[in-house]
Amino acid sequence: MRVGIIGAGAVGTGMGLLLKERGYFIAGVASRTLASARRAAERLGCPVFEGPEEVARRSDLVFITTTDQAIAPVAHRVAEGGGFRPGQTVIHMSGSLTSAVLNPARRRGARALSLHPLQSCADADRAVANIPGSVFSIEGDREAYPLAERLVRELGGEFFYIRPEDKALYHAAACVASNYLVSLVDLSRRLMVAAGMTPEMAARALEPLAAGTWKNIGEKGIPAALTGPISRGDVATVAGHLAAMREKAPQLLDLYAALGRYTVEVARRKGSLGEAEGKAFLRLFGAVRKERARERARLG
Fold first, then answer.
1. Is the peptide bond before 146 cis (omega within 30 degrees of 0)?
2. What confidence tens digit (pLDDT) does each residue in 13-55 have?
3. Whether residues 133 and 201 fall in one domain
4. How far apart are CA 96 and CA 164, in angstroms?
5. How many CA atoms lie within 13 A of 19 on its CB side?
6. Last residue in a domain, options 133, 165, 197
């Protein structure tokens, strides 16, 4: 099967490398800039093409792995340039967009799929390391499902079928687990620095703590893995957190309180938090919200 890659970023180059390892023939690569296409082609051992329609014409399986905003314009350009045909399968790997963005390919007789790995790929090498074994969402033309399933199996992953109307919620969940996790660790790091630790030491200190928590989640599940003052109903300790943050890190209070309110509900599901303590926590966090609202109103 001849595979064409349109969009030579981390996911496109990584998928090309993974498929080449598994015996697929990489027919060519095109990208927004010729320089990035050449870098990817050098690693993939394939030709470079200036136009995406040229890659598509030579391919049985076309991956459009551009930015989300570029998928529709690229699909339209390839269709207008005669790059799509019956018997072809066209895949995008966006977590938020449905296969409808590939309708220009459908109108030329090709099958269209959205195939998204629940994975973070900072660069092509991370994509090669991280994508195998991931869970993939599949959405699109049923006739192309066997190919999608085959690709996932060859990558050692699992898959599930998702309805188009559920893609936005699914992508929001992925953002929380990946993007917001980075923000959460940054919040912790900033509090550590405010407490007097150097940023470098904070990074080293938090890594094993986060890794241990993730291990607990894997072994015990949620909510059983929850520990800490909210889990055990220690209202005084959390009140101390808030008092210290008011003095040294007031700009972080809103986020800490919002996470605290959510954690109260997790602790209730765990069964470790009494009703009185739960209400006391919510009063503490509610007071923060009111304080911050008054502060914002004062500042205009």
1. no
2. 999 999 999 999 999 999 999 999 999 999 999 999 999 999 9
3. no
4. 9
5. 26
6. 165
Strand partners, 2: 25
* Spatial CA neighbour of 62 closest among 43, 34, 35, 81: 81
The two tokens of residue 241 are: 């957190």
Collect all residues with Cβ–Cβ distance below 8 Å to 149 and sequence separation of at least 6: 138, 159
> Which residue is listed with tokens 């809103």?
254
Residue 70 has which token pair? Answer: 């570029």
Specify whether the CB–CB gap between 162 and 137 falls below 8 A: yes
H or E segment to which residue 5 belongs:
strand 2-6
Q: Do 41 and 119 reside in the same domain of the chain?
A: yes
Give yes or no: residues 19 and 145 share one domain: yes
Give the total number of structural domains in the chain.
Answer: 2
Burial of 210 (0-12, 13-18, 19+ CB in 10 A): middle
Report the phi/psi class of residue 45: left, alpha or beta, with left for phi > 0 and alpha for psi in -120 to 50. Answer: left
Burial class (CB in 10 A: 0-12, 13-18, 19+), 39: middle
pTM of structure: 0.87
Q: How far apart are CA 254 and CA 259, in angstroms?
A: 9
